[in-house]
Amino acid sequence: MLLFRLSTTTLLAAVCLFVASGVSTETVTTCVDADNPHHLECEDGVISVQSALYGRTNNVICSEGRPPQEFNNTGCSQSGTGNFVKNRCNGKKVCEISTNDVISPDPCFGTYKYLQTNFTCVPAIHLIACEHSYAHLNCDKGQVISVVGAHYGRVNKAVCFASRPPSQVENVYCSNPTQIVAQSCNGKNSCTISASNSVFGDPCYGTFKYLELSYVCECK
To answer: Where do the TM regions start and end (predicted)?
Structure first.
């Protein structure tokens, strides 16, 4: 099957005007070591990043076993971290970021830093369309599409892998956040978009890719 719709009609109707209410903020903090992935996950709904920090604003977090001079600077924050994490994770059910992806530029040399993300799990419709197929976004009458996030590439070997040789699904470090779906579909009652290189470009040549997206239906 080339297209998976991971939602129900009941959810579609209930999500209208509900996205900002009834959801709690979760916080994940990862001390910056080479072998520590920053893992965000929503059991229900999809990730919506509220804020993210790489640096240090607290002298207690990630201080165990460190000398005082490495955690005394609590005014350390890297510019652009929030947008980076939002682009990587918004609209996904599971997202992992290597701390190696955020360590440069160093916002405060000599300070032991951490990556901290505040996010909510919002009710949303989650779609995956394999390359060369189509994603169909639909809302009930009186509702319009609002895209939470979209990514074209591959981050999982077990998605869109049927009948594909191992060489085409082994690269799981191909994540390309895109605004094309939002630009094409936001504000519409229904929208169809092709999961193809001609639309999104080719972020990883030779890899069989898929489009993963999440959206909510809002009242007009």
So the answer is: none
Question: Which of 122, 121, 141, 135 lies closest to 196, judged by CA?
Answer: 135
Alpha carbon distances (Å) from 68 to 53, 62, 74, 99: 21, 11, 12, 22
Per-residue pLDDT reduced to its tens digit, 74-93: 999 999 999 999 999 999 99
User: Strand, coil or helix: what is 200?
Assistant: helix
Show the tokens assigned to 44: 């229900």
Residues 127 and 196: their CA atoms lie apart, in Å, by 15
Q: CB within 8 A of 113, min separation 6: which ones?
A: 32, 54, 55, 56, 62, 76, 103, 107
Distance CA 220, CA 208 (A): 37
Strands 94-98 and 37-41: antiparallel
Task: Decide: helix, strand or coil at residue 38.
Answer: strand
Q: Phi/psi at 212 (nearest 5 deg)?
A: -115, 130
Please determine, for residue 198, whether its predicted confidence score (pLDDT) is greater than 50: yes
Handedness of CA 103, 106, 110, 115 (dihedral sign): negative
Mean pLDDT for all residues in the chain: 89
pLDDT for residue 18: 44
Do 56 and 72 touch, CB atoms closer than 8 A? no
Q: Is the peptide bond before 105 cis (omega within 30 degrees of 0)?
A: yes
* Residue-level pLDDT at 220: 79
Q: Average pLDDT, stretch 128-152?
A: 96
